[in-house]
């Protein structure tokens, strides 16, 4: 018989096992701070550039852009890493190290406030001054604004995104609809007309209104209503600005009228993914789609068996005069504060974001809206006539974006969360929900300060 | 003089013991004590991971308990998983172990069949389950519909998402099965023979012979299961991501917990607060709470089942 282990020793050993097993949950909280650099951009060097693009034609476009830079700067080599999510970028910016990126680009402007206020990305104002470039006259107004926070320009626009309406012209014809809807009530009627049931599901759904339907996020809907989000003192206006409630009410109405939340979610779970060829708009399963300008190229590549129509998204009935506006955002680029090669990194960022030929060629390659005023006017810009719709949305004075905030896009995810709860029925009192969301946004901002 | 020699001897022996213990002591200090102390320190600091931390008192603690909307749902989910998932996993692992030790032919085949799923990487296993349980296209629901049973929404329905995660955990019960099998085969045969002679029924043999013999193993399974459930991260995150459709959400910040916070767990909050919101102070608060909770659970179980352990060894 084995010797008995004393109880105390046994308990101690057990406690130790427990402690070791719990290590993972407690080691998450150590960090380091960043430093600048005084590297010589004319010397031989290699930069690491992280971007978020993943579709084959997009990756090819990035490679061509970087190849152009390397040709112009033979001493600077660029190691390109694609398909990076914001989560991975956030972590790399914080951790630094030899494999961390020197230059990053992110698909979302939501994090700009956080990147700037935390110092994760370096302030580019001195670089712009040194290169004698004025951002205000180089970039369109909205893009110039969403790339800075509190006077700190930690990001540069690298192509823009405008949101509009894609519609299946063939399905429109079959349903007897002659033109794309201009107001939400027209849209509602069309979405119902375009919906064809099949058993418990749909053969064709007029529109997928659910907030989990990729680009149908709360802020994209709200772009059509023009909310302010914050008042002058920085407090949330979510509960007081009627535009927010109007956007929620419209979406909920669409959800209810097109089949109800549960049925729509079940249908959504059968659909192909957003970036693949089986995207429901491309397969004809969904007749109208709220999406960005890049969808046109992707949809054409998928060679659908219907004609694709493009138009601005509808506007509220009482704002019919503002038809043509849309939500604007874009990809941003920046230099990591942990980079030891910031001067060389600036050369890459400067080339990618301000060299007209480079911006135009990149825009042509990945079907995004150009991000400099010169590139927007460039005769080299090649596009399908339908793409013009997005250029117009981008330059429409009524088009909106969501403002940068100290904690990044947290306020947008709070609004989004209310959206999820409201569409599913978990929250039924919208006014109370909005008040709670506004209080939450204010508390979250106070916590980040 | 004599006392002096004794003292020197004693000191030498202490030093020798410490020298032998040093690899562990260093490991403990570097990988446990230091992170633990800094976690406590950072929980009272405002720290975004970039700028130097500044003192914020109990602000992070109040924030997590009173204002962070995901804390209570995540705590409830974690407790649900600890109670339901762990109990079912132990019961099922024990059941399978019993069954396999009882069958006469093909034991090897069954052992392999039940053990294999445990080898599947968690991400792949979760994605496979999300595919099988897809409410629209999954084979499970099409079969259920064919035989007239109302098909649940699984990972897309807040009431079914945790049961779906439990199914996934039961499928990967191979680790427990192996441990239970070893324990069951270790039960002395003569005890069964004696109890049979005394006229004990199958249930009585299980209750009075098998159970006391394997109770330390059950205890081990429960405690390690509780710790695993407390740290449950990958499966709920992947299930939520796949079901919500955000697979390559490069442009969106994915808030875990789809649908309706039902797959949100405490480790996900640590990730969300620390790495997505850059609020390391609050992340440390949740980490400490998780640690305290795991310790409390373990201590409770050890007290309750202390007698059982001694009965077995």
Describe what you observe in this structure.
The complex is a heterodimer of chains A (449) and B (313). Chain A has 449 residues and is an alpha/beta fold. Chain A is 43% helix and 13% strand. In chain A, strands 1, 2, 3, 4, 5, 6, 7, 8 and 9 form a nine-stranded mixed β-sheet that branches. In chain A, helix 19 (410-424) runs antiparallel to helix 20 (430-448). The longest helix of chain A is centred in the C-terminal third of the chain and has 19 residues, at 430-448. Chain B has 313 residues and is mostly helical. Chain B is built from 13 helices and two strands; from the N terminus they run H-E-E-H-H-H-H-H-H-H-H-H-H-H-H. Chain B has helices at residues 2-42, 59-67, 71-102, 107-119, 122-132, 139-146, 161-171, 174-186, 189-197, 202-230, 234-244, 266-276, 280-312, and strands at 45-46, 54-55. Chain B has a two-stranded antiparallel sheet with strand order 1-2. In chain B, a hairpin with a 7-residue loop joins strand 1 and strand 2. The two termini of chain B are 46 Å apart. The chains are: A alpha/beta (449), B mainly alpha (313). Chains A and B meet through helix 1, helix 2, helix 4, helix 5 and helix 13 of A and helix 1, helix 2, helix 10, helix 12 and helix 13 of B.
Give the strand line-up of the largest sheet of chain B: 1-2
Computed structural class of chain A = alpha/beta
Mean pLDDT of chain B: 89
Question: Between the first and last Cα atoms of chain B, what is the distance in angstroms?
Answer: 46 Å
Q: Helical content of chain B, roughly? A: over 70%
Strand and helix order of chain B: HEEHHHHHHHHHHHH
Poorly predicted segments of chain B: 247-251
The tally of beta strands of chain B, per DSSP, is 2
Strand content of chain B: under 5%
Overall, the morphology of chain A is globular
